[in-house]
Design brief:
By secondary structure, the protein is of the alpha/beta class. Helices cover 52% and strands 15% of the residues. It has a single domain, classed as Rossmann fold (3-Layer(aba) Sandwich), CATH 3.40.50. The chain is built from eight helices and seven strands. The structure holds adenosine-5'-diphosphate, shikimate-3-phosphate and magnesium ion (MG).
Length: 177
């Protein structure tokens, strides 16, 4: 059994693979996995889409900030954040203090191909979701670039991204096999 010295927080756009790759990475390491979106849903007792519809985005963001702060107090684990979480300065400060942040980077075409399969992302319920995703990507990219590490999440099997993460985290001594 290896040891994870710090929580690994995955950041990046919707469709980057934070949730699916994060879960696989945690299973591969044998450490805990938390998905901030799931924790928010559990706290609110309703799905993300209903939180947006009933309370609005700013209430969702408040909840997201608190939930991530709470998760960061747990033992080192893999944390999948939601795509907008890293835009909060307060959340970025907490993540910097208590985790190693990894931007899972992917180009627009790949992101859109992945998110269009599922219609559960409230921010993309617009007349032209591809354009909306592109706008968000342009706005957010400079902030994602502030993450400690960058891993490309290309059009390859999940396992490939997991292996890349394992390699980089081992090199940095954050994962000690
Ligand atoms: N590297 C990848 N290769 C193939 N499919 C992927 C990859 N990463 C993510 N996906 C798929 O894209 C969709 C969105 O991924 P998800 O993990 O929910 O992203 P995020 O949490 O960053 O929004 C899922 O159906 C997932 O299986
Ligand atoms: O980019 C965003 O602002 C959002 C991303 C979603 O998470 P994923 O990035 O896991 O899809 C979810 O938190 C919510 O729909 C808002
Ligand atoms: Mg997710």
């Amino acid at each position: 059994m290896g040891q994870l010295t710090r929580t690994i927080a995955l950041v990046g756009m919707m469709g980057a693979g934070k949730s699916s790759i994060g879960r696989r990475l945690a299973a591969r390491m044998g450490v805990g996995f938390h998905d901030a979106d799931h924790a928010i849903e559990a706290a609110a007792g309703r799905p993300i889409s209903a939180i947006f519809a009933e309370y609005g985005e700013s209430a969702f963001r408040d909840c997201e900030r608190k939930v991530i702060a709470r998760l960061l107090d747990r033992e080192p684990h893999i944390l999948a954040t939601g795509g907008g979480a890293f835009m909060s300065e307060a959340t970025r400060a907490r993540l910097a203090e208590k985790s190693v942040t990894v931007w899972l980077r992917a180009p627009l075409d790949i992101l859109f191909a992945r998110v269009k399969r599922k219609g559960d992302r409230p921010l993309l319920k617009t007349p032209n979701p591809r354009e909306t995703l592109e706008k968000l990507l342009c706005e957010r990219e400079p902030t994602y670039a502030l993450a400690d590490l960058i891993i490309d999440s290309e059009d390859a099997p999940h396992a490939e991204a997991v292996e890349k993460l394992m390699t980089v985290l081992t090199e940095k001594g954050i994962w000690q096999p």
